[in-house]
Amino acid sequence: xxxxxxxxxxxxxxxxxxxxxxxxxxxxxxxxxxxxxxxxxxxxxxxxxxxxxxxxxxxxxxxxxxxxxxxxxxxxxxxxxxxxxxxxxxxxxxxxxxxxxxxxxxxxxxxxxxxxxxxxxxxxxxxxxxxxxxxxxxxxxxxxxxxxxxxxxxxxxxxxxxxxxxxxxxxxxxxxxxxxxxxxxxxxxxxxxxxxxxxxxxxxxxxxxxxxxxxxxxxxxxxxxxxxxxxxxxxxxxxxxxxxxxxxxxxxxxxxxxxxxxxxxxxxxxxxxxxxxxxxxxxxxxxxxx
Length: 290
Prior knowledge:
single chain; Glutathione S-transferase Yfyf (Class Pi), Chain A, domain 2
């Protein structure tokens, strides 16, 4: 049983990140259909997914089309009750749903002033008062959730849940634009930046198409504040320690070099997403450590 999921650019589409995390983190098989934002690609693709108009959009194995990330979360939870998408505890589940609903409908100043961009980080973006008010509200409800659920994990309601999925793009905005938050909120942001699934999404986004002008800002830049990747680089040739791609099992055609060792992949994207963050990929790590 494999679902279909329409997404936009990984590096820019915050709602697509939410949709993808619901499958990746909770182990639900999915087949991706990608379209570049602000082009005709997305409307053309969505003609095959009526009545959808936005990414993400899901098609279930029985053919039901479900647009919108909140609807996707609820439908997946009903079809996969043991996946852990929402907390099992009723009180924590209620809190998580409150959080997801407010995120889905709110924080428009933050979202407008600070669109998601996973390729850069800035020293300052001069956030206006409305953005600062959104940040205050975020910290208020994040703290409330921890108190209500008694969470002692890095996440808001105990184990990682749909509530955290919905705030993942907000965490990236705080990281990209160096937004002012307190220590507890900053720790929550760092938990998102270090999450293995998010690291894989960002690694793919870094090599997934050209920059789009809509997202360009002229603020001073700094290094990405998440985990620093291992120093891999793409190299020419096909000579490598392994003869088959660690992801597909197909013959090696493209190679990276890491600490003087050469590892091969079946295509440029497999190689380049690994170069972007080698430790994000368990199958590569297993090869690297072998």
